[in-house]
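ok trying this again, last paste got cut off
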Amino acid sequence: MPETNDKENIIRWGIVGLGDVTTIKSGPPFWKNDGSKLVAVMRRTPHAAQKWIETNVPTSLQTGITPYDNLDEFLQDEHLDAVYVATPPATHLDVCQQVAKAGKVCYVEKPCGRCGWETEEIIKAFDSKQQQQQQEQLFTAYISRAYKRTDVMKTLLRQGTIGDKVTSITYNLKGMGGARGVEDDTAWRLDARKSGGGLIMDVGCHVIDRIDYLFGPLVDIKSVAKRRQQPSLTTSRKAQLAVTEVEDYVSMTAKIKSCDWTVIDSVGASVNCVWDFCSDDDDDGPLDELVISGPKGSIQMAAMSPSLPISVLDDSGNVVKTFTFEQPEHTAQNLIQLVTDEIRGAKKHDDGTDIRAPSRGENALRTSKVLDAVLSGYYGGREDKFWNRPETWPGRQQ
């Protein structure tokens, strides 16, 4: 456990990267949560960190937060225990390695690395200290694992609402899935150099991880990834931004493998997912639907929401019960609280065992490897720095 600054065992957090994800979704929990205090923020743009503090932090707390525009100086802050890495994925590996070298605990935004090997390198960076201290040093921001909605879903499955096993899992998305900042052709979420692929890296990873958490790892993966919508750019601009010609349609089939964490037998269940980020079907509007089926019925829900209802259907397709939820003010707050509690060692289950935050390096790595399997054909493999060779991507030639 980090050496903290008072008898109350407060974890002193810092944030690297101060984009839109930190304004409402994930920034405020670091000063609102129990046992947590925000003491430093860092952004390379001069004066941007101070502006972020003035814009987002309550006036009474602003003087306790130090702004930085240099990562080395930020990590040398003696008051810092743990770091939230909220930069685009392209910088995650470098920043996380520096966080590990500085001896700080790390909470990094999903999808961790741009591909499987980057995620593995991030995990390795924390291995030594983790083994030495026998305490988790790396946490990942798959926030739906800590949603109340997810807990209700687990309870329904455990109670046998759809039967004693899961037979199939289907997911369909049409539209952007709530992705932010994609209006510009140079948006990082649409630039393989910065994200590792198209919107499936930012949006689809959540669904893949949710399936992994509730049912088990995905195996026997088969997929189609292609680009259906061409950029409306000049010829010279297209050449300059060839790396942004990422996939915008992905279909995936898979099976569920056995594991020791699911609450219901899901082994062998079929998985069918489609992400259509440029759907031409404007009449129907956007779609975000996850359906879990079993012998007695099914459960339907929007996969990308923390608050939309969950519906239980019988084996004839009739809705028999609906569960509703309040929209959380900060969607990452529950997970950040669990991460903070684990670092502090402050809370235990009724049986005396320590509470563990549910999103760590190992689940991020499984999701990264699934994404690699799904997208390998489009990029001509993902074992190298494929983002530097867009001219070789088979997907661009389709």
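PB: full thing came through this time. The mean pLDDT is 91.
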